[in-house]
Amino acid sequence: MDLRSILNYFAFICFMKLNTLCIPNFIDRNHPWFDHNHGPLRELFNFTSYLCDVSRSIPYSLERDPLPDDLFNHIQIGWDDGWDSVEEIIQCEAAMQGAKSFKIELPEVPPPPILDQVGDMLGNMTGLETLQWALESGSDQYFEERFLDRGLVLPSVKTLDLTRSGLFLLGMCPNVSELEGRDIKGLLEEPIPFAPAVTRSAFEASWSGSMVRNLVSSLPSIQGLGLLGRMATAKSYGDDLDFVDETEEGNDNWDYTGSGLEEALQPARSLANLTHLELPWAMNLDVGFSGGPGCGNVYFGPDGLKYERLMMRDGLKAIRRAASLTLEILPSLKGLRIGDTDVTIMRHDNGTLGLSFPWTSRIDEYILEEVPDRDW
């Protein structure tokens, strides 16, 4: 009995015994089409074949609501699925043809036959646009060797999302324009593969100047850059920064240079096409603001409310400080975002630059809106 027959039999048992749909794990089970057609789908003995066969005939019960075009847009293999899902996907012709986004996230290194199957699967997803690679870094050498041996090229992939590993895929995705990920395994401690087609990169990391240099030196065409996470030198609350100014004006005289932010931004000056930059929250930028205590009773009562507003004032001024430093280093920027704050960059007729924020000329009103009076 082949795999397709086994899957159909398993689906039939689910229909008859469990009164539920045994939807393959790699499909989005929350797609509304399954709920809308639960009854008619239960009547199909060859449910999996109906989903996966691109030459399927539409049953009368589903003529008014046939298989949606986007059902296979996102395919994934997660921690609960195991490597058996790879063969299931290969057997599903509709998934192979319809996949626009594919995510693979498993903890262990696969057995050798799976390495080839993953290569076959990716190579035949001709419409794949987004590849999310979240395997452990220890598996990289095995996949890279097998993929190189078979000459794997993924020309349709435009977005590469990396977590833990996968930088070797850059060389196999010649048309990638967006590079994203979380540097939780030190991916950026070494120079990355040269990728001249990438125009946007957004990584979450603990940034040092050398890491930014490793990133931007290989991305000469970058237009949008996200240095998310934190500066490596940023202090946390309690690291000699647990102060708050007790005046209504807030603290605007930090004895701090923002050296960590400056160190991280300097390498980006080499990017001739850079127009947009995204940075983490001000408390993660090493500009003298730690964010204050995240919990506790310091915010309770009248004094706590005053304390919270003063902390917010310090935070807003930290954003202004970070934005000013950023524009000094990268004066050609057109867009800047710090945390969830969009900074407006103004270019005056005399050639000078200006900054505007959501609270410009109304900081007191803004703080009251964000931290209103409370009854407790």
Short description:
The protein is an alpha/beta fold. Helix content is 32%, strand content 15%.
Key descriptive features of the protein:
376 residues, alpha/beta, 11-stranded mixed beta sheet, 12 helices
DSSP, total strands: 11
Enumerate the spans where pLDDT stays under 50 for 5 or more consecutive residues: 15-19, 239-255
Which range best describes the helical content: under 10%, 10-25%, 25-40%, 40-55%, 55-70% or over 70%? 25-40%
Mean pLDDT: 83
Q: Tell me the Rg in angstroms.
A: 26 Å
SSE order in H/E notation?
Answer: HHHHEHHEHEHEEEHEHEHEEEH
Strand content of the residues, in percent?
Answer: 15-25%
Number of helices: 12
Query: What does the main sheet amount to?
Result: 11 strands, mixed
Please state how the strands of the largest beta sheet are arranged side by side: 1-2-3-4-5-6-7-8-9-10-11
Distance between the ends? 68 Å
Question: Which of globular, elongated, flat, extended, rod-shaped describes the shape?
Answer: globular
Computed structural class: alpha/beta
Descriptive notes:
There is one protein chain. The protein is α/β, with parallel strands linked by helices. 32% of the residues lie in helices and 15% in strands. It has twelve helices and eleven strands. An eleven-stranded mixed β-sheet has the order 1-2-3-4-5-6-7-8-9-10-11. Strand 2, helix 7 and strand 3 form a beta-alpha-beta unit.
What's the SSE blueprint?
Layout: H1 3-18, H2 32-36, H3 38-42, H4 47-52, E1 74-77, H5 84-91, H6 93-98, E2 101-104, H7 112-124, E3 130-133, H8 140-149, E4 159-163, E5 178-182, E6 200-207, H9 209-216, E7 224-231, H10 259-265, E8 276-279, H11 301-329, E9 335-338, E10 341-347, E11 353-356, H12 363-370
Parallel strand pairs: 1-2, 2-3, 3-4, 4-5, 5-6, 6-7, 7-8, 8-9
Antiparallel strand pairs: 9-10, 10-11
Helix pairs in contact: 5-7, 7-8, 9-10
